[in-house]
Design goal:
Radius of gyration: 21 Å
CATH topology of the largest domain: Aspartate Aminotransferase, domain 2
Keywords: Pyridoxal phosphate
Distance between the termini: 22 Å
Protein name: Erythromycin biosynthesis sensory transduction protein eryC1
Modified residues (N6-(pyridoxal phosphate)lysine): 187
Largest sheet: 7 strands, mixed
CATH class of the largest domain: Alpha Beta
CATH superfamily of the largest domain: Type I PLP-dependent aspartate aminotransferase-like (Major domain)
Shape: globular
Number of helices: 12
Strand order of the largest sheet: 1-9-8-5-4-2-3
Number of domains: 2
Organism: Prochlorococcus marinus (strain AS9601)
Strand content: 5-15%
Oligomer: single chain
Family: Belongs to the DegT/DnrJ/EryC1 family.
Length: 368
């Protein structure tokens, strides 16, 4: 069998090639490169799909978080609680916006923030929580909302890996004061380059988001504050508008592929499969297994032509960037345990059943 990549975007894009080229010709012919009708159309359509009143597009998912942090008016090292296991954008944007990041351990089985530990992290300086719907699994938003209400905290959802996932029949992205998305090419809904967005129902928050992302003003030359330059371009918007027509089908295919892995890899010694929490719609951005000999398994699979990835090999509190916080492995035992065991195996809509069978056979051969 040919080598199997961790993700094959080429297959997806080949199927859409005619639509993409046609859309790009229109953008080029209209010189609609910065903002313009395609960006406006994307914002309107994405707001509808997420069930939100406002969508503010931006340059990437990291900017989306940073802009959202700025809209929350962080000051004087106010504290924001984030999960210990995530991509660094979740935490670095808090610090960049003037806040202090406070890590909370994650659940060992589903990788989302451990809601039983959140209250122990709250101090008089705590102002917000950033739940991350990691790998496509929604965090426990019922519990998070209860805690936020009890302590008057805001919620910013990090939905970068969970486009259109659901918690108890409600879409992720519908719970926070604002919710952020990434359209990095490898995401379930990915652009041709970097792009991001923030959604909200709050008019005042939407104004702050738009203003800060556009040099501090909504009209050219009318700068109400100092802002940044973070914009989605017309080509990315046109590209995403095409892919949005297929996202529901692709999500269903991801779910089918995940269910097939559960059948193929059921009850294999020393192998831990991911979980789907009851009432959740997991959209399977990544299918993450666990094995005590993760590195050996990865090397073994590579030798068979199967690509894997580790998302992420070092939990946030243990990165050199956060050495100044003086954390130890005992502070975040679940995140520490998972970082040495997790391994992402190929899962994408175009993955074939034969490929899944081949991947599973080789995992089983290693495990037994």
């Amino acid at each position: 069998m040919k080598n199997i990549p961790i993700l094959d975007l080429n297959l997806q894009h080949l199927n859409l090639q005619d639509e993409i080229f046609d859309a790009f010709k229109k953008v080029i012919n209209k010189s609609s490169f910065i903002r313009g009708e395609y960006v406006d159309s994307f914002e309107n359509e994405f707001a509808k799909l997420t069930g939100r009143k406002h969508c503010i597009s931006c340059a990437n998912g990291t900017d989306a978080l940073y802009i959202a942090m700025h809209a929350m008016n962080l000051k004087n090292k106010e504290e924001v609680i984030v999960p210990a296991h995530s991509w660094i954008s979740t935490s670095e944007t808090v610090t960049q916006a003037g806040g202090k990041v406070v890590f909370c351990d994650t659940n060992v089985d589903d990788f989302t923030i451990n809601t039983d530990l959140i209250e122990s992290k709250i101090t008089e300086k705590t102002v917000g929580i950033i739940p991350v719907h990691l790998y496509g699994q929604p965090a426990n938003m019922s519990k998070i909302k209860q805690i936020a209400k009890k302590y008057s905290l805001w919620i910013i959802e990090d939905c970068a890996q969970a486009h259109f996932a659901e918690f108890k029949n409600l879409q992720v992205g519908s719970f926070g004061e604002a919710s952020t998305f990434s359209f990095y090419p490898g995401k379930n809904l990915g652009a041709l380059g970097d792009a991001g967005a923030i959604v909200t129902d709050n008019d005042e928050v939407a104004y702050k988001l738009k203003t800060f992302a556009r040099h501090g003003g909504l009209l050219k030359g009318d700068h109400q504050i100092e802002g940044i330059n973070s914009r989605m371009d017309g080509l990315q918007a046109a590209f995403l508008l095409i892919k949005m027509k297929y996202i529901n089908k692709w999500t269903d295919q991801r779910i089918d592929k995940a269910n097939n892995y559960f059948k193929l890899l059921n009850d294999i010694p020393n192998l831990t499969l991911p979980v789907v929490n009851k009432g959740n719609k997991h959209v399977w951005h990544l299918f993450v297994i666990k094995h005590a000999k993760r590195d050996e398994l990865s090397i073994y699979l590579k030798g068979k032509g199967i690509s894997t990835s580790i998302n992420y090999p070092i939990a946030l509190p243990f990165l050199p960037a956060y050495k100044y916080l003086n954390h130890s492995k005992n502070d975040f035992p679940a995140a520490y345990e998972n970082q040495s065991k997790i391994l992402s195996i190929p899962l994408y809509p175009e993955l074939t059943l034969d490929q899944q069978s081949f991947i599973s056979k080789n995992i089983i051969d290693f495990c037994i």
